[in-house]
Amino acid sequence: MKSARPFRWFTVASFLSLVVLPLGMVTAAEGKPAAKPDATAIKQLIDELGADEFSAREAATEQLARIGLPAYKAVEDAVQHPDREVRYRAERILGRIRQLDLQRRLDSFLRGSEESDDYTLPGWARFKKVYGDDTHSRAVFVDLTKADAELLQAIENSPKAAADVAATRVTQYQQLAQMQQFGGNAGLQLNFGQIATLLFVAGEEDVTLNQQSSQAVFNFCNQQGMADAISNGSRREIPRQMLVRVIVRSEDWAAYQAMSLARRFSMKEGLIPAEKILKGNRQPHMAYYALATIAAMGNDSHIPLVEKLLTDQNVVTQMHEKDKVIYKIEVRDAALATALFLTKQDLKSYFPVREGQTVGDPQQVLTNPRIIGFAEEAKRAETFKKWAEYRAKNPGAAPAKEDGAKNDGKEAPAGDTAAKEAAAKAEADVATAAVAKEAAAKAEAAKKEAAAKKGAAPAVPMNAVPRTR
């Protein structure tokens, strides 16, 4: 009977460092595979995993790892061995065999010389259908496989499985980031492969990520590793294409981040979510950012779409000055400023821009009440009237019909129709504001009159007050 041996427990971190060692760190130190042994020799080595002598156990572990795939089945069975030392070592050996075999297959894959008995790498069929099969695409796919083979296996299994694993991975990355920040370290920096694998999955048309996951993926794209790959890398076209596929599918808050990235990396595809927002049930803050995107990357073909917002009075932002004057930016003001960018007109000829104020960046302009905000409706009406006059002289394209609208055979309205309607609306608002101001003044006067009457009530004469005894 074998003598009892104390079993040495390892921490979870130590175990993971052995099992999920990055493929790039598996080197020739592992040695070349040994000559193919027979089943008897493999069984004997399995038994040696539980030997009393540490050196014997270590030697058997190394030999089985070098044998590789021929020993895989026997080692896999040893994971169920009654001796927990054997079980533990068998699990370690399986991890090394998998890593070495995967590295071998990836090397062959990069050379384009896969062996006939090698199974296709999970996710490759989908990947090459979109991004092609050449040296660059294979190199990128190897980065993905090294970074997150589990997620690639999930997309191979089903779109639903891929969405679930992607959500789990996002949560794991976010938790790691929080742990690092809690420990006083810099934020978590993911490598290119980790982010690109998420992008690849998120860009597949049959995969639907939840909003939280979509937003996180866009956030990850701002990290240095991915930003460099998109902007300057020798293989930049594939990561750019990956990001584009996700941008055009973005909705709601994820669309906000999509447009931000599109502007950062000069991707015209950012116009697609911007157009969807302006055509849909938009919120003021989302409309503003969509307008900023169109102002930065659009052209005069977007004017009809933008002009549909020239009567939208929802407030985007406002500012209080010391003299208690309130400057407000409404959606229609941002839309007008966008139209000026698209028609390459000078904002200073429409808005009271202060001396030295820069107006080149649409995002800064569209949120600055001191540039395009109004404190008086009369000033707004004058500005919109000027736009209407410009459009009367430069009608341009007629407003596009909404999707699904029927062609009734009638001639489309002139391109200046929306401008005229906006100017009329602004004029009406002046009248409304005047009526409201007059009503407020009357109410204030009545209030003062009532207060005066109350304060002027006749006093009781002193001799009318009865004396107390």
Automatic annotation (TrEMBL):
InterPro entries: ARM-like (IPR011989), ARM-type_fold (IPR016024). Coiled coil: none annotated. It comes from the Bacteria. Residues 400-423, 439-452 have a biased composition (Basic and acidic residues). The keyword Signal applies. Residues 394-423, 437-469 are annotated as: Disordered. Residues 1-28 form the signal peptide. Keywords: Signal. This is HEAT repeat domain-containing protein.
